[in-house]
Structures are given as C-alpha cells and as structure tokens.
Amino acid sequence: MYCRIPFDRNKGGGACLTVNDNTAVKIENVSKKYCKSLKKSMFYGMKDIAMNAFGLSSRSERLRKGEFWAVNNISLEIAKGETLGIIGPNGAGKTTLLKMLNGIFWPDKGRITIKGKVGALIEVGAGFHPLLTGRENIYINAAILGMTKKEVDRQFDSIVGFADIGDFLDAPVKHYSSGMFVRLGFAIAVHCDPDVLLIDEILAVGDLGFRVKCYNKIVEIAKNCAIIMVTHDMSTMARISSRTLVMNNGTALFSGVPDIAIQHYSSIFQKEKTVVSPGGISLIEFTVDAKTENGHFAITSGAPMNISLKFFSEYNNDYITLILAFVHSSGEFVAEYNSWLNKEELKLPKGNHTLHLALEPLHLNTGIYHLSLVITTKNRMGHLLVIDRLLSLFVNGERFGNAPYQINGVVNHIPQEEY
Hints:
Elements: E1 23-35, H1 38-53, E2 67-79, E3 83-87, H2 94-101, E4 109-114, E5 118-121, H3 134-144, H4 149-163, H5 178-191, E6 196-200, H6 208-221, E7 226-230, H7 234-240, E8 243-248, E9 251-256, H8 258-267, E10 274-276, E11 281-288, E12 291-293, E13 296-300, E14 303-313, E15 317-328, E16 333-338, E17 346-348, E18 351-362, E19 367-376, E20 383-396
Parallel strand pairs: 3-7, 3-8, 5-6, 6-7, 13-20
Antiparallel strand pairs: 1-2, 1-4, 8-9, 10-20, 11-14, 12-13, 14-18, 15-16, 15-17, 15-19, 19-20
C-alpha cells in the first residue's frame, strides 16, 4: 500500500488514513493557495519555513495579502474501476488538483490519501531529460513511476510498440514533437500497471489514431484502476467517465453523472445578449414554443421547435437573409437555420413585421445551447442586425454522440447472396 499524506504545517505531519478496500483516492477538504505577486510569494515562503523551523504555526489556513485559493475545500473518494472526469473553465483549479494528487504540490489544508501506484500524464515532456534518448528516458521515467529495471526490461517492447515513435527511439527527446512526447509518456504511464492514473487534457495534442488507441487502453485498464481525467472535450468525457466533477474558481460545483454535470458546466458561461443593429432593424419581441426550466427554454432532443419574431424596420429591405445559429455552451458552432440556403425569399419593408419560423426536429445532444440571430443583405455580406445569445436553449434527453448535432438517417441492409 502506498499512502501519500500532506505535511500539516500546524501539526507537523499526520498518520495514514483508513481507506476502504476498493477506495483508491481519498480527498478530504483539500485547499491550495497561490500568491499573485512573485516577490510576496517568495517572502511568504521564507517566512513559513522559518516559523516551521522554530515550531511555530504558519497559519496556512488563512489568506494573506495577494493570496487566493486555487483549490478550495474539495472532498472526493474515487474507487478502483471508476473513471472521474473533471471539467470547468480555464483557471478553475483542475490542473492544480491533479498536481496535488501527483505529489507535485502539497495542500495548504486537508488530506490526500492514495492507495497504490500512481501513473500521471500532466504536462508534455514532464519527467524527460531533453539530452537523453527516448530509450534512456523510458527507464528514467519508469523508475520515477516506481518500476524496477527488470519490470521495464520485460515491458520495454510493449512500451515502444504502443508509443510507435519509430526511428526516434534512439534520438534525444529534445527533437521530439509534443505529440511524440505524449506518445512516449502515456505508453510508460499505462505500462507501470498504475492503481491510479492521472491525465490532464494531454491527449488533445495526439493524432487521431493514437487518441483512439489511448481511449481503448483507458477502458482496458479502468477495470482495476482509478482514472482521473481533466478534459474540455464534453463528448469524450461523457463516453468515458462514470462520474464527473465540475469546478469553477477553485470550488466544486457538482459531482455526479456526466449529463447533469454538463448542464452545470454550461451554466458557468451564461452572459447577457449583445445587440448590434447597423441596418435599422430592431427585434421588438420573440416567442418560443417551448417550456422554461431554470431560465432556459427547454425541449427534448428530436422535437421540432417554433419561433415567432417581431421586427421593426426603419428602411425598405427588398431581400434579407435570416440566420439562426445554434452554438453549444462550450463555444462550438453546431447548426444553423439559413433562409437563403432554404430558398426563402424574405423582405422587410419599412414598418412592423412578424416572422414565424418552424424548425425541423432538432437531434441535438443533451446540453445547453445559445441561439444567435443574424439578418444580412441579399449577398450575405452586409449585416443589418446581429443579436448574440438571443436565447438559451436546454435540450434534454439521452443523446450523447461525438458531435452535438445528430443527423437521422435510414440504413438499408441488402444481404449478399451466398456463393
């Protein structure tokens, strides 16, 4: 059993916590603070060392001038066989939490207990010596992860085969691309037979073939391993994670099933709509044929949608193009209605007008979407009205494909004659 207990500055240390047989990671009220000023950070660090040396409390639970909580009071238990996805905006504290789990940083408050061996892939090139070859770095990095030379010798061919870095095995790793770093680092991490595997968005730099290989390996080792993965890829997280933690500003907003977690993640990005009307067109009112839930219009995936728009135009517009864009809360553009592509000839002469828009069944993944309204001239070059985030739409259901928009179709299977 391997147990990592953070040093308690006020008590001078601690004993190993009791962990259930199937619990691989136990996080108890963990917090980590940083200082915005480098000079103050160095001063505070020297002061804390001096106070601890004389047996005095450094009061690490309190914030001093310029300090902030990067991670604040996080508690979790992750069992073997469980994959925890951690999501949140940049600066939420996700990577800091992972680095504390890997022992790179110590918490200022709380305890972390880990049962077993940890494999980590947090930063590209971490643990590699740039002047040594890939072959030499395999032995060094594997030793850091707790593997003996005999174990590395036995797994060496498998590591090299998984990394697939070809003739670069005996080249200095300073000549490696970021993708090659990831290949080698991931190959070593999964071959050390970890009880806990930490992954921080690092697979995003790998090519498609390698990512597929990694996802399959994650599924394979997840049976006997606790996996904690930080990602901004909602579809990957929804497929692989059995549980999801949503973080923002260092705190935990939600921990539970992925589809509900995505809704909490999406709510972080809510903001007021922006209206730009250079063409003298004003939106007076709009109505949506949908119920409301928590401030969002809500529909079920696969249902149609009807929208009515009331405009006032100061000028005669002989031909306009009406565009309604669907943008996922993560910022991904997923679908649009375009009157020009639908061969709709729309006019907005001077005065008041109402447009009724009937949309076909929307096969969107579960989540929150923002709808933006754009009205352009006939050639679609001149913008007459732009409303960013006209409305917020919550799509519920059980759809979780790789892309937010799912296209329905029919497959006609014709069996071949037996010869």
